[in-house]
Design brief:
The chain has about 270 residues and is an alpha/beta fold. Helices cover about 45% and strands about 15% of the residues. It is globular.
């Protein structure tokens, strides 16, 4: 299969942010390449939805923790489908709340491999071709843990903070060469059935109801932010942006003193 449309590559294409971003870019004229670790039926469903809406899409199962998988996907995509104009690294690295004693070396390392090393490998394999073409975008989904390390988040916070710093170094090197690197801090819960939904199980709907109307991030709305970032002109690039529901307190204000102040009359 060949196409001359620019390619939007998503690593971490679930039914939440990744799948909705793929659909948005496909609607905008890109061929979406969706990669995820498991659930072949779920992947096929996302691809079919994009095709039924008139877009182009391809799905691929990918285990990022295995050597060579990202590199092979990029080589195959560029060869068989088209040039990757924009990529989204949307892979999570959350292993749940764990004390230090309950965080084995292998578990900590897995967070780093998913959260940071996978992004490094993507950039290492993909950016040279973008530089040769003189354009391209790398969008990176991140989390509150990238800017604040909470108890029980040793692996996740280290991985996300590393992801953020890696994005800054990539931006410093490649922005002058015409490559837009954007780091998106998702500072709130996302209405994603195969991530938050699986984590909460049968409590998922009750959780969303308790958050109230528009109290959980709509991944389709967030996809518009990703689209906007990829379309920004070179003279007005955003490197880092954060997003949350209007009812959530921003990460930099969510601390004990701020919580006390929010409870005072007139504050």
């Amino acid at each position: 299969m060949t196409t001359r449309r620019p390619v939007f590559l998503v690593i971490g294409a679930g039914a939440g942010i990744g799948g909705h971003a793929a659909a948005r870019f496909a609607a905008g004229g890109y061929h979406a390449v969706l990669a995820r670790r498991s659930d072949e039926d779920g992947l096929a469903k996302l691809v079919n939805q994009i095709e039924e809406a008139g877009g182009g899409a391809t799905g691929s199962l990918l285990n990022v923790s295995e050597d060579g998988t990202i590199e092979e996907l990029i080589e195959r995509t560029e060869r068989d489908i088209g040039p990757i104009d924009c990529a989204l690294y949307n892979l999570g690295a959350q292993i749940g709340n764990r004390t230090l004693a309950d965080t084995p070396h292998r578990t900590f390392e897995l967070g780093w491999r998913l959260g940071t090393f996978g992004l490094f490998r993507l950039a290492h394999a993909m950016l040279p071709a973008m530089v040769e073409r003189g354009k391209g975008s790398l969008l990176v989904t991140s989390a509150t843990a990238a800017v604040r390390g909470n108890s029980g988040q040793h692996s996740h916070a280290a991985a996300m903070a590393g992801r953020r710093m890696l994005c800054q170094t990539l931006n410093a090197e490649f922005a002058p060469q015409g490559i837009h690197v954007a780091h998106i801090v998702v500072d709130g819960s996302v209405d994603a059935p195969d991530t938050l939904g699986k984590l909460l199980g049968d409590k998922f709907e009750a959780y969303k109801a308790a958050k109230g109307e528009d109290g959980v991030i709509d991944p389709a709305a967030l996809a518009e932010t990703y689209w906007h970032l990829a379309q920004q002109p070179k003279n007005c690039w955003t490197h880092e942006i954060d997003a949350r529901p209007f009812t959530d307190v921003a990460w930099w204000n969510d601390n004990p003193i701020a919580a006390i102040n929010r409870g005072k009359p007139g504050t």
